[in-house]
Design goal:
mainly alpha, 74% helix, elongated, TPR repeat, TPR-like_helical_dom_sf, transmembrane helix
Length: 315
């Protein structure tokens, strides 16, 4: 017999089935606001109630948690469908605690994005350090060359740590050793830009521009360092200028894929890496082919279940 205000357990089970169907079809949530999260609240409350009354609800918990994992995996899609601002506004009214993690999906997505960006930047930095070390031990660099590379490596590490004053100091050190080399000017311009020193940033940028034969080489270098600094919008702007002049520039396309990954834009990243693979095979760039294939495979695992795999042509 149904008690007043208390749903029957069978009714809670029906809510679970509704939750399962809605999580499996997140695109259909458009226009429904955060009602899915309210449904999840109700399931949590009443499953806990029946559990406290001695009911055996372990199978129900398992089913809910399996689809919780799917919701968490497809959090980016869910946020795109309902809107981050809408979620934040509703959350202010509901005031859920952090144990109700489904109300905090935007924070989870942002934390994952920062972790991926940091990992990618660390990998890029690690590759640079390995190359520097190999260069030193194999070719026995002269002291001035070693001092220059030490300063540039320190600037890169400071950039990743957002220590922009230190970046400028290390770049100035590198410039003093080899003023004819453009990279320290590029890095210094970005650090000055982050510090809000517009005139200083422009001075460094003009100095760098004068040292490059081709403007697209400058844009490509800037894009890589913007990416390391976490300035993804600026990185994409530089990449776009390179691709405008050279649409098949594999270095630019590969970096664009990394930017989309950092933005958690899986679909666009897949499209770019599929283009990279196609061009690498056409140009016989054998070192890029396995890298592109690996990226495509990893990204396909992150693709939301409700989205089709993009075709290589991007259609």
């Amino acid at each position: 017999m149904k008690r007043q205000g208390i749903p029957e357990l069978d009714e809670v089970r029906q809510w679970i089935e509704s939750y399962v169907k809605r999580v499996a079809n997140l695109r259909d949530e458009r226009g429904r606001g955060v009602t899915l999260l309210a449904l999840r609240d109700a399931i949590e409350e009443w499953l806990r109630f029946y559990e406290s009354q001695g009911a055996s609800v372990e199978p129900e918990w398992i089913r809910v948690r399996n689809f919780d994992a799917l919701l968490e995996k497809n959090a980016v899609l869910f946020l795109k469908v309902i809107g981050r601002r809408r979620l934040q506004e509703e959350r202010k009214q509901v005031t859920p605690n952090e144990e109700r993690w489904w109300w905090w999906l935007d924070r989870k997505v942002e934390e994952e994005r920062k972790k991926r960006l940091k990992r990618t930047a660390a990998i890029l930095g690690g590759v640079t350090l390995v190359l520097v070390a190999l260069y030193f031990f194999v070719f026995r660099l002269p002291p001035r060359e070693q001092q220059y590379l030490n300063a540039l490596t320190a600037a890169e590490q400071a950039l990743q740590n957002q220590a922009f004053e230190d970046v400028l100091a290390h770049c100035q050190e590198a410039i003093a050793i080899f003023p004819e080399r453009p990279i320290p000017y590029v890095v210094a311009a970005i650090a000055a830009e982050k510090l809000g020193r517009t005139n200083e940033a422009e001075h460094f940028r003009q100095s760098a521009r004068a040292l490059y034969e081709k403007e697209e080489d400058l844009f490509l270098e800037e894009a890589g360092w913007y990416f390391r600094a976490g300035m993804l919008k600026e990185a994409k702007g530089c990449i776009a200028r390179v691709l405008q002049k050279d649409p098949e520039n594999l270095t630019a396309l590969n970096l664009l894929g990394s930017v989309y990954e950092a933005e958690d834009n899986v679909v666009e990243a897949l499209k770019v890496y599929q283009l990279v693979l196609e061009l690498a095979e056409k140009k016989n760039e054998i070192t890029l082919i396995p890298v592109a294939k690996m990226k495509i495979g990893m990204l396909q695992l992150r693709l939301p279940l409700s989205l089709p795999l993009p075709s290589p042509s991007g259609e």
